[in-house]
Amino acid sequence: MKLCAIQQPYPYTVAEAAAAVEFVIRELESCDESLDLILTPEYTNCPTKFPCGDDSMAFARAHYPALEKAARDAARRCKAIVAIGCCAPTPYGWRNTTRVFDRNGEAAGDYYKQQLTVREPKARSVDNSYATTFRAPEIVEVDGLRLGFVTCYDAYFEEYIEHLGYRRPDIVLVSSHQRGEPCENLRMLNQMLAYHTGAFVLRASVGMGEQATTGGTSLVVAPSGEILADAGEKNGKLVCDIGDPKQKYMRSNSFGGKMILNRDFIEQGRTPWSYRACGSCVKPGDGKMPYPRVCAHRGFNTIAPENSLPAFGAAISLGAEEIEFDLWESADGVPVSIHDPDLERVSDGVGKVREKTLAELEQLDFGSKHGAPFSGLRILKFEDILHAFPRQTVMNIHLKSVNGEYFSRRFVKKIAAMLDEYDCASHAYFVAREEAMEAALEVAPHIPRCMGAGGKERRMAIVDRAVKYQCRKVQFFTTYWSPELIRKAHDLGMICNYFYCDDPEQARRMFEAGIDTVLTNDYWRIAQVKNDFVRRCEGKSKNV
Description:
By secondary structure, the chain is an alpha/beta fold. The chain contains 15 helices and 25 strands. The chain has two domains: 2-246, 4-Layer Sandwich (Nitrilase/N-carbamoyl-D-aminoacid amidohydrolase), CATH 3.60.110; 293-543, TIM Barrel (Alpha-Beta Barrel). The strands form four sheets. It has an eight-stranded parallel barrel with strand order 16-17-20-21-22-23-24-25, surrounded by seven helices. Strand 22, helix 12 (462-468) and strand 23 (473-477) form a beta-alpha-beta unit. The two termini are 53 Å apart.
């Protein structure tokens, strides 16, 4: 089978962009029947850096029809599979797409770039709404050939590549720019891509000029990682005959063992419990999770004991963007989740939490007071929450203190270290009064902070205290809030929480007043209010 990557000259100015698109169209028009699979670079129809705004999208729209026609014509004329990397119209808007046409010129399937760069959606005006929901890596089948895809920035995400390898592609199509990446790194990335997916790699990119040491490097790589063809910075067609496209790399199953597929050698020893949390259960972090949100206060505690795994699990399984829980330090320094300083209300024990060791706390029943079905639940350690739900929700962590007493820096530092260990720092923020907030700013400044209400006489000064402790959020308390305070916080770039609301009508009013996150004990009812509010806002937006 003969593969062809078209390397496009990179236009350094917008004025040169049209010529670069025409270059690819001419290359497609000159393809002949000796070729079986043809690929163009990412953003073939808008291949340069445009000023932020509508210029990039306008250019892409204007140049897409001619590019698509050239691709379809080449597919029919050459009886080849043709894939174009482009900004393409889809039923959902314009997206960064690799669009595949079969040998008859008919659309065979699309791949939408999964990992878009931070500036890409705004700079290119492309839709990326799909990127935060679960999608298995795309496989497009044409004539029995399984085509997988990696677009530019995707190449750096090893967990994504492992998932793609699991889907057993025959050829991975890499439409790319990667203009600033050294050529030797590009070769290495694509060699490892082939090796870990067990597939041939066909990479099409943009040439940066004869003397360039970055970008370019359109490639054909064998499943073993061997580079079969390399364009360097030379523009035009890179052609390579790979023989059997379903060939796989075989290796010995350890020293002296029988020959097996490389993918199987990797898969048999997998220990996923030791990996970074990823996959369909992981949600966007606090900086990316959209608003408005509902935070399950102490979990979904109307149906399960507060501050328990059943309460948190119920809320998370129903889609809770956030959970809230309280942390105290046991006598032997272990962070445990319980609201009150005393044990009597939620357990069969007596006394102060901070005066008991973990071993003593674990002897108590923390479930039966909620109901007999939960009899026997033990105290919940902070680490239990991290172990059960890493990166599956945003954690509103209430650091507990009593009557303004000094708050242990060591305790805050320990909690922050555990968040880092479980890779949850991006999915958490601290809520506390001043004494704990001061400690958090001093010893764990990388964990975002939310100013708690504090004493009654100071609650209306919450925004000013949030500024003092460099907080991203404020958490208003029942009647201690006002529209003016919400506006003041928003003008300062702060998020506004409201603690708490279990009444649907009141929750609706709070969302309409500009509250970003409502805390509630009755998660499901208030979540439905939020969902209805979002639908109404989206409807108004469409009608404008």
